[in-house]
Amino acid sequence: MTDGPLIVQSDKTLLLEVDHADSDACRRAIAPFAELERAPEHVHTYRLTPLGLWNARAAGHDAERVVAVLLEFSRYPVPHSLLVDVAETMARYGRLQLVSHPTHGLVLHALDRAVLEEVLRSRKTAGLVGTRLDDDDVVVHASERGNLKQVLLKLGWPVEDLAGYVDGEAHPISLDEDGWSLRPYQEQAVDNFFHGGSGVVVLPCGAGKTLVGAGAMARSGTTTLILVTNTVSARQWRDELLRRTTLTEDEIGEYSGTRKEVRPVTIATYQVLTTRRKGVYTHLELLDARDWGLILYDEVHLLPAPIFRMTADLQARRRLGLTATLVREDGREDEVFSLIGPKRFDAPWKDIEAQGYIAPADCVEVRLTLPERDRLTYATAEPEDKYRLAASAAGKNRVVEQLVAQHPDDQVLVIGQYLDQLQLLSDQLDAPLITGETTIRERERLFAAFRTGEVNRLVVSKVANFSVDLPEATVAIQVSGSFGSRQEEAQRLGRIMRPKADGRTAHFYAVVARDTVDQEFAAHRQRFLAEQGYAYRIVDAEDLTTA
Amino acid sequence: MATYTQALRERGEIGLATLLTLRPDLATPPPATLRSLAARSSTRASLDRALGELDALSLQLVEAALALHHPGSTASPARAADPGTLARAVGLTEAEAGPALARAADLALLWQDGETPGHHPAPGLAEALGPFPAGLGPWLSTTLARRSEDGLARLASALDLPTTSLDGLVEHVGDAATVTALLAGGPPGVRQVLDALTWGPPVGRSPEPASAGVTSAARAAVEWLLRHGLLSIQDPQHVVLPREVALVLREGRTHRSPATAPEPAGTPIDPRTVDAESAQHAEEAVRLVAGLVTLWGEEPATVLRSGGLGTRELRRVASRLDVDDTTAALVVEVAGSTGLVVEDGEEPPSLAPTAAGEEWLREPVPQRWQEVAEGWLTAERAAWLVGTRDEKGARRAALDPESRRPWAPRLRTTALEVVAQHPGAALSAAQVHQVLAWRAPRSAPPEHAVEAVLAEATTLGVLGAGALSPAGRALLGLGSQTDDAAARGAAPQVPATHEPTASAPAEALAAQLPPAVEEVLLQGDLTGIVPGRPSPSLGALLDLAAQVESRGAGLTVRFTPDSVRRALDAGRTAEELLAELSRHARAGVPQPLEYLVLDAARRHGQVRVGMASSYLRSDDPGLLAGLVEDRSLAGLGLLRLAPTVIAAQATPAALVSALRARGLAPVTEDQSGAVLVAGPRRHVVRGVRGRGRVPAARSGAAAERGATTAEEARERRLRRLVDDLLRGAAREEADGAGVEGAGLLGGPDAEGTPDPVIALALLREAATEGREVWLELVGPGGTIQRRRVRPVRVDGGRVRAVDAEREAELTVAVHRIATVTPA
């Protein structure tokens, strides 16, 4: 028995004691094959999943290595069945290969004939494969490469994709590292991605995902299609690329509702790609408009279903997904993995914070006891109205005022879900309001004013959840949200996590009505961040003045 | 020439003692004479039991001895094969076959007559091993004897033989040279026919007779073989290959190859892994059984009418213990076998902990495990049958009285012993089964049973990672493994000279358990992690106040409002809980957890529930205050809930009359608060209606439902009546069973006297050896007829015998035979 930092449970969770002297070495050793599930202050929980083990195989780790790592770091004897399971699971990867055949094109090649027979007999592969060439080879329709990979993964026989990538149209791009350089973890993320071919990089908000994208573009040196969530975000990408790379304005095009430019680097919104006229995706040709060498998906956790389907056709092109939280409330993480690619880089938020690359954040849940009258209204309300009633309780406005008053020198964002509630807050705080109805121009103006400090209070709806770069925001007050969405909570915290010039701590407040569904949803929303080590303090609204 | 009985006598004291030790069924009840010992040892049941003890090689040799044993005829005596021939027949040298032959001889399945070295098969073996030993058909002397005189003559002419005598033909056709020569000149297709029959079964379906003059090649081949005596007709549809011919084709072998003992190569397992995993499982098993005992202590489980635990109750156990149904069934079965839970004998019966079970809960884990493991090891129960369907298609319930299997303990011991012989290695169920099948092919357990038993052993921690744990070794009484000790190195080890004591398994387990951890790491996401095996006090605390997320080498728990509420329900205050947690938490209790506990405590008890039989309300608080203080009303159990409301323990009627006695004028009100006008008492009417509606067969539980104060007495009466009825029925049933039982035991038992058994044994012996006996037969009119015959076959209550004098064959029902005397 060693005195290792790791406890291997038979249910395939790995418990890593953070304060242990070997914990860093252990983390590095298990990261390639274990999924980080939660990373609170003392013990991080990793999980061994088939997907994680297969990704490790894809990245060149074999079962012996995995077993050796577990044995080396484990404090107690490792359950035998788990070791057997690891070996068996990993042995399933690569029995089938996708290869490029000189005459037949894309071919599914079997190293294990029985497996090929099994998968060909499955109804799920029907239509994805063509003629059988011989016992071990079968032609695959090039357009079904993604679908086939996904189906084989579901069947438990993940295919090793050796068919490679098209190079795409070359277009020199390099980073303009003037007075700055990629941070070590960004470099590593770019390396991991490029080495793996395609995949997803998970970094906290504010940790510089755009730069990882820029780094990948520079490494690829090809034309690039960037897919983003909205127009504001598209503009921010453009600005950032202009500032950080050698790209000029003429080389970057915007393909959105208002402009339809196709340039060597084109930034398009998900919305425009998924626009349909008479059942036809009218802007699909953008995907073929150029011989793209790299396709970049921003906020990959929000990727809409039609984009998934389109992505299935793009398997020959390098794909990079960027996200802060690979938590999809619809549970389609697996599709992200099989269509965009496996997770290539992931780091606990707290680690990046400890390195000073994102601002330390203090998360506080303020619990407000509803007045008697509101409690009665709430108790007798219809179930579907309960959340709205609790979340937009009038008492919250006073709490927000108190909180704002506590931060006179900070740039404060007030974020909420319900427009009438936000309107009231905007009036009460005398702060501008940005909602979905605000024009793009007006939004940009207000954001710019906020960045310069001209405006230091901003009330925003969920339009500001993502990809709005407000580096100087240091306080966010959340009054209501989309029910129990964990990733929304993380994104909102992300708004204030850009490192501050003076190194000050960011404050994230969630105002919650006690003993209501609001409180339950809040508990659920906080789970992701709590698992990332952001423990919420809970403060009673009555105690705020003293706190 | 010697007989089986004589051979038994010649074994001498030691030989007989060995026999009686190896075949204990022969010794109980003690046989009166050697003859009756011989008779008993050649009964089908005893032979089957003895054959069940044989390993695969000995069994081959016994088969060979039987197959090569020529029963002889009036002309020639029985010929027994000598050891060399037997060894060659299975493909071994005489020396190699020696021990296996000796074993068969020790079991008296083979015997020697002292004059020749040949091994005779024990009488009755032919019946026990079936008609075609080693896949060999009947002797030529039998097959040719079925042919008519003309048939024999045709055969002789086909073979170009001068003689037509049976013996001559038998000798000629059975000769290897003849067979080889004949086959060399046979038509095509002959070889294929013979190949199909050579290694058995020796019987083949005759090809359809030629129709419309077309003769198939196969038909032609078969006809040619029949014509030359190389095949015989078995019955109108089948042909059979005579034994001599088959033996020539097999080159004298009875078996293609000698059975060899399997040497399973287990997967090597680190002994530390075995220790850790088995200890974990052992602890978990104890925890689950304890959970069951506690659960049923709180709410006993109802028993099915047919006995055992219904599916719904089993599911309840599974969900409460958070395990699958199979594990739940094992836990229930083990708790039952260990005597921790039992049917309470009430009406209706339910399952509840015994006093021993309650006591068991207080013992330390290793002792508790030992009791449970011993209970399992010796249980004649097949827990793996739970959930499967019986012959009638009904699901077998846990603790089903029908799932008793007397062989289960032996199966467990033998299977575990096989594993024990491979220290430091894990064997699969298939490998263990292979070894068991080699050791006793005729009584090998089904593989699924072996698999189930090994799975149970794993769940209980007797096995760890597929290898026997030290505690498991102690449980089997094997002492510690020296190899293990060497491999284990510095780990604490029981000295090799240590005498196994009654508590050895518990001690071994205690040595296996990793040191307990007193510390829990509490985190901001409301989880807690014990980095090892929690100490009893810490484990109990977390079980009470948190929800377990993952068990194993460490323990992960999550605190939820519900789990904290549970702790508060159990009587802890928030402060006590936080104090206990912080005593175990090195890094302190994080603020969110502290808040959670305090918040749960704030809400705990916000609403209170109590019991009252009636209430009293008035708009005059002063009046009510006076009533509560009044000593004369103390017996009513008055409690002031609010200034204008008092709850009472007395019934409304009692309350009303007590208040009236005190000079007040109370009125009663109904559930909606409306004043009730006093009317005629209605409980008499209710009583009559109630009696009419409760059927006599209704159980006590049904009668208990909805009891109100006014009805209680009536219900008690009813329940007594139902009880009396049920008890009477049970008594009648018991009496009835007694009468039937007496009939079985005391009734005339024609087969019960020893004579027919001995008579049958004599007949079998004579049949095997081809000797003659005197029979006294009871004729239809009660006349006794004495005949000298050579028995051929004893089977199915009939004896087929040849009367040499009258040249006739006769078949006699066994019950007509009065005496048998060797001729």
TrEMBL record, chain A:
Limits of the Helicase C-terminal domain: 399-547
Catalytic activity: Couples ATP hydrolysis with the unwinding of duplex DNA by translocating in the 3'-5' direction; ATP + H2O = ADP + phosphate + H(+)
PROSITE patterns, alphabetized: HELICASE_ATP_BIND_1, HELICASE_CTER
Keyword ATP-binding carried by entry: yes
Domain Helicase ATP-binding: 190-344
InterPro entries: ATP-dep_DNA_Helicase (IPR050615), ERCC3_RAD25_C (IPR032438), Helicase/UvrB_N (IPR006935), Helicase_ATP-bd (IPR014001), Helicase_C-like (IPR001650), P-loop_NTPase (IPR027417), XPB/Ssl2_N (IPR032830)
Entry keyword ATP-binding: yes
Gene3D superfamilies listed in its UniProt record: P-loop containing nucleotide triphosphate hydrolases (3.40.50.300)
Family statement: Belongs to the helicase family. RAD25/XPB subfamily.
Protein name (record): DNA 3'-5' helicase
UniProtKB/TrEMBL annotation, chain B:
Keywords per UniProt: ATP-binding, Helicase, Hydrolase, Nucleotide-binding
Pfam families: Helicase_C_3
UniProt feature, compositional bias: Low complexity: 695-710
Location of region: Disordered: 695-714
The Helicase XPB/Ssl2 N-terminal domain, residue ranges: 520-642
Signal peptide, first to last residue: none
An annotated Gene Ontology molecular function: helicase activity
InterPro entries noted in UniProt: XPB/Ssl2_N
Protein name: Helicase-associated domain-containing protein
